[in-house]
Amino acid sequence: xxxxxxxxxxxxxxxxxxxxxxxxxxxxxxxxxxxxxxxxxxxxxxxxxxxxxxxxxxxxxxxxxxxxxxxxxxxxxxxxxxxxxxxxxxxxxxxxxxxxxxxxxxxxxxxxxxxxxxxxxxxxxxxxxxxxxxxxxxxxxxxxxxxxxxxxxxxxxxxxxxxxxxxxxxxxxxxxxxxxxxxxxxxxxxxxxxxxxxxxxxxxxxxxxxxxxxxxxxxxxxxxxxxxxxxxxxxxxxxxxxxxxxxxxxxxxxxxxxxxxxxxxxxxxxxxxxxxxxxxxxxxxxxxxxxxxxxxxxxxxxxxxxxxxxxxxxxxxxxxxxxxxxxxxxxxxxxxxxxxxxxxxxxxxxxxxxxxxxxxxxxxxxxxxxxxxxxxxxxxxxxxxxxxxxxxxxxxxxxxxxxxxxxxxxxxxxxxxxxxxxxxxxxxxxxxxxxxxxxxxxxxxxxxxxxxxxxxxxxxxxxxxxxxxxxxx
DNA sequence: CTGGGGAGGGGGCCC
DNA sequence: TGGGCCCCCTCCCCA
Length: 473
Prior knowledge:
This protein is α+β, with helices and mostly antiparallel strands. Helix content is 39%, strand content 12%. Residues 319-346, 347-375 form the C2H2-type domain.
């Protein structure tokens, strides 16, 4: 093919087989050629898929088998990108994936879109498709669904039926529009158009879109044949921002569990071994907080899914975590759940500097570790009372020992320091992170618990900390 | 190596 | 909507 003219982006080409001597000449716009070629290529691939030609990837959705081309899936879905790129060598003969978190019908819509650019959305399937697209990390599909729903809502508002509809902006204050980095290769000539019907509870049904309590684990366990890891890039990003050596953050899932105990006893002392470590931790904390904010800013715009139906056949609304397949009833619970992905720990213990995701966990920790609230002798495990159980202080750690154990151990082994009139009680003061005084320097102490019981409550001052402001000089 | 206990983390749900 | 409680699970330490 000879290039005969160059008009910038829209180059003109002579049709194949035509010489410059032939008249009349037929000219082709390069953009038209590109579109035609892409369309034809996609059509060919779709035809091959339907004829199961060269299909090298199997996807099992609730027992129904779909055949596809791994390169097409790779190019279309972040989930498959991760799945296929983490195979043994990326070139293994057969790759398969199994899904139980959405229905075969929903995956049919997704697959048809991948191979045709036509997204068959309706008021009946939009939530399911959006949920599946979120799982498969297909941002362009999510955006289509979002626009679809928004269009429905516009109509709904006019009909004063907004109560029965989902507003994305309303259901998730932290959502933002994500970048559509793959849209060029995926969108094509989409057939999405404003929905003709209202999207209401009545015509919204999404049984299979509901994800149960343990679906995260189930999904993780069942979704991958070749890759047992998390399906989400965002999840990976969330994990990435959490330094396993950082005592202030834990890892999601199993990593989190693994790191939990490791930091449990090391964090309080090691974090204050010197000023440099304090600075490092604060710096790391700031970076983590910033990354957490970035993470929030890049959340996929999907939050609402229809759960199961109640007795009145009304669907029960649930909120879906953008990082995993977990769904919750309340937005507040989702907000709480998100902390396990972002690593946010806004509640530091002023006594030992350990941080917690929840105030109740901090309070429990403080009462158990620093206030010796447990009426059990630490040595012999016998029940004690506030009278018989003497409080032993070890640094900021406090626990009780019965009189017998105190005598048996002897005061020589347990440095005793009367705490009468003690003002040294560790205070659960939050908000002045890293300023707790000398808990590691403090020696062992034994005290009666009367004053402890009295003043412990007064020392419980709670103030949530915003990490991002801690670094202010 | 194993089982028990302590501690922390997370989900559901009530107020 | 946030706080708080209850329950369950996991991990680590230790005997």
